[in-house]
Amino acid sequence: MSQVCVLVEHRQGEIQEISYEMIGKGRQLAEALGTECYAIVLGADARGIIEKVASYVPGVYSIEDPQLAEYNAPAYQAAMSALIQEKRPQLVLIGHTASGMEFAPRLSAELRWPLASDCIDLAVNEGCVEATRKMYSDKVNARIDFKAAPHCLATIRAGSFSSELAPAHTAEVITVASPLTTEISARRFVRLLASEVGDVDITQADLLLSVGRGLGGPEYLPEVEALAKQLGAAVSCSRPVVDKNWLPKERQVGTSGKKVKPKVYIALGISGAFQHVAGMKNAGTIIAINKDPKAPIFGIADYGIVGDMFEIMPALSKILTSA
Amino acid sequence: MDIIVCVKRVPETAEADIIIDSSGKDIQTDHLAFGINEWDDYAVEEAVRIKEAHGGTVTVVSLGNAEVQPVLRRTLAMGADEALLLNDPVFTGGDSYAIAKTLHAALKDKKFDLLLTGVQAGDDGYGQVGPMLGELFQLPSASMVTRIEVADEKITVTRELEGGMGENCELTLPSVLSIQTGINEPRYVSIMGLRKAKSKTLSEVGADALPISGDDLGASGALTEVASLYLPPVEKTAEMLEGDTETVSAKMMDILKKKGVVG
Amino acid sequence: MLSAYHLASTTYWGIPGFCIAWLLFLTAVGLFGMLIWRRYLLIRAGQPDPRFHDIPKRVKDLIVYGLVQKRQPRYLVSGAIHLMIFWGFVVLSIRTIDLVTQGLQLPVMVPLLSSGFGTLYEIAKDLFELLVLVACVGAAFYRAIRRPDRYQGSHSMDAYLILSMISALMVTDILFEGSVYLADGAGPSPAWLPAAGLAGALLSGMETSSLLTLQGVTYWVHLVILYVFLNLLPLGKHFHVITALPNVFLKKTQKGSLKPARWGVEDFETLESLGAEKLEDLTWKHLLDLVTCTECGRCSDNCPAHAVGRPLSPKMLTLHLRAHAYDRYPVLPSDKNSSEGKEPPKMVGDIVTPDELWSCTTCGACEEECPVFIEYIDKIVDMRRHLIESAQNPNTFNPVLMSLERNFNPLGKPNVKRADWLNEVGEIPPVKRLKAGDTVDVLYFVDSFPSFDPGFQPIAGSLVRGLAAAGVDFGILGPLEKDSGHQVRRMGEEGLFQLLMEENMETLEQINFNRIVTTDPHAFNTLKNDYPGTLKVVHYSEFFWELLQAGHLKPIKAVASGDVYTYHDPCYLGRHNGIYDSPRGILSVIPGITSVDMARCRDRSFCCGGADITLWHEIPNEKRRMASMRVEMAMAAGATVLVTACPFCQLHFEDAIKTDGLEDRIRVVDLMTLLVSTLS
After folding, report:
1. What is the ipTM of this complex?
2. N or C: less crowded end of chain C, CB within 10 Å?
């Protein structure tokens, strides 16, 4: 029985969203392949995590070991290697995350199982799994062929699939013996670094709430900052805002400021001059809110709202408060 | 500290029109501008900075044809000491695994303390070669590295995690690191500087000189292959969210949730 | 002419007067010679710089700017004072030689001064002594009471000392003359000698013996002051008394151009290093500039960077460099031990900071104003070259420079899309895309920003409409065109500029055209002044003014009434290339237009912020945007429409108007777009 396995990614007791996305996709693929989708949970004490996924998969493979208490690439690789060599799944899905992108290629080279990384889709074609991924500034889709390998690996780009799952199972939990008999010394986890709150580094933020001239005055900043806090976003801006000393220079996005690459960039009242656009065009998704339907920012945005930022902001805040 | 940096020459595609070639498995490149992969630029800069602070050498390695030479020249001008180009038609057509195997074969007799790659390449973006090299060399590796602190016999690196978080971990030397953009500000090398670097060594090696079987090279050594390329339906003009304030706000919130930036 | 020959034969403490005169003379001249030698050693340390071509033009400029001092009256009060003192010096030099040679018992001036010229000269000399005295007092008062900002950081004590010495020279000579008249029994001096007459009146009633003593004292004191004065000149700002005329004679003859990496070196790759890192990397003429500065501060007074609070003052740049030069080339062999163990300061880094260098917009206001033609842009760019070569440039430049190298434009766009703007500017007549071997009358050089930036593209569109309306046979190069290189050259990336220039020249040589027309004054400037050979380049403002004058175009549609237009002179059209009238000509024939000039217009135009560094680097401490100040000046002139002939000016002004919330009061329009709007 050659399963589809999904590695459940978790940090500080919380399951990362991408795990559910992969389980959803894994279940579809398993059905197409006539097999089942099992979850893999690694940890020092995996029970809490297993409980959270138990209703979504028919089975959970788990390895518990003190060296898996925190993510550490060599430990994860060793555990995954032992587990999948024993269970020999047809397909293993791993998040294309800071951790997955580290050990999945090593696993592939170690086992000589082909790996398609950063996939946005997977499909079964004549009994074979085929991956789809983006290339060339995400402008081209590539179908990746695993050359009929019996076992393959894929890392999945976050946000590719829906994470909303219907509970359908009560998982059978299968504990696999930890292969970590000796202490790993080549690489050691030291500490997690929380995202900095005070000194905002806009180049590191996943979500940027960026204000432009449309802000109107420094007196409106607290409203923007309050919304940013609710959203978990950092506040950045275009040059005129810095010119007027409403925000410090470190917050400026653009040719004479910083280049940013957040997952989502929300442009509030920014017209979209080239100096600004050059600093943010590589953002994953750009949402622009501007009163002027002809503002150039709409030319590069993925989503646009023609409207007053001061009407949209309270509405967003309300949704967040009520959630 | 002796450092090896693996770099790749890639086309600039962010602003360009992409045309798929007649094979259907690659893109046309004659109208594209090429340069060093952005991530690799940071890796070279980091290597040169470590050398400047701690002494040692920097060797830059790439795989490709003679067109890669200007890219390597630039890294020499940035401060690398020598460059090695693995140039043989049989190297082409491979996936990350075949490339990693080739690089491993070329470098396995070289002594180094650090082997750096970029996290990924701007063209195909697999992000696999760095960690695979770690595996092939049986050395510890780390990816998404945004800071390196060098101490005796070990290094402490900062890795970039999701959601603005980071992680510190310690690795013994030698080790393999995949460098994330933003770790430094790569220097600009002037045209004059480029020409001055002409005197530095840039050697080329073909498949014959490498201790590796031909079956492991190029397409035959690959574990995966590109079956086809296609252009996804264009969706780049902004999708306008319509409706009253409450409606558009709700729609926007859904997008934020879908992109995983809001819980 | 009254003489002091008897003083030469008088004995003082047993020593004949002429011996003392010779002793003083030889000491003074010897010391002066030594000082000049020391200064020469400094100048000699500089790099080569060809300054002896174009001699007729140099002679003409020497007369206009050196002798007539045309630039002095740009500052009326101090200009008038300076002219009085300068011409006083010229006139009185004969008197000085006469007085000196009298003491030396060398009657070389006697034949001249006993001729008819002598009488005339006597009057002139007398008048100028008074004039100079008045001017010195005036200058001192101006400096002490008016205290113009431009004197901040100048050596004022130095100025007062020199003014006092000049005054003392005048007073001693006047008293000497008066006493000689009285003592000789010639009675009060003639009425047409007001100074001597005044002295005569003052001294009348004095004993003859006292008069003789006074004669002796004033003569010897005059001589001593003269010699001290002479030897003070090379030590301070008054060295310009000696170097200003040579500096004017040796001035740069081609405005708008930049000096090459090294004069006399064809291939810059053969150079050890590129750019000015240390003092000796400057050319000898630029070192001469340093010693010539009069500290008048007119440069900084007109510098837009200085006006907005950037850390650049052209005057202080020169003064700091001069102090550094004098430290490195002291007049007295320096006490080496005192500076031992200390790192000598670096010219670029310690003496001149990178931010100072990046502050400059190369607008040329300083150079336009300098009475002695000190060059700033070449020095600043030369020092920027060093910053670029040593990777000390702002990081924000890196992607720009990389893009120019890879894509031949600074915007990171694929150059294959260079003609795509044709599809972005609405309905336009078909445009010929030129290729090697083609023949065309006018080659329209669009350059990067008008090709790629959506804010600039409409101007290119207007140009195409205008050219087509006038029936001009024209074409563009499309992807064959590369960035003109104006920006990179001024940013200091000389190698990249050379690369772009070579690429463009190769293309241009393969196309037969009569003239090049540009959108942008910067592209115009670089093609005209930086590129080799004799490209016939015109900016669109010149080109269309010609078409209008020849009747090939006729503006018929009047502009809306109620607006007041004012034209802003772009630096690279006006100051750097002297084009002030063509754009105003175009404005003048637009039906229904009312236009005014701003207080600062033509060669005193105020830079918008510039077309290079400003786009990619933020200068700390800037209090205001230059464009914001300029818009204010336009409004002060009563304008409601600010007309530009440069896309970058338009960009900055539009930004400033929006930032300052002045959309209801003033707007910006490009001259070409304005003209085209009146055609049909």
Report:
1. 0.90
2. C
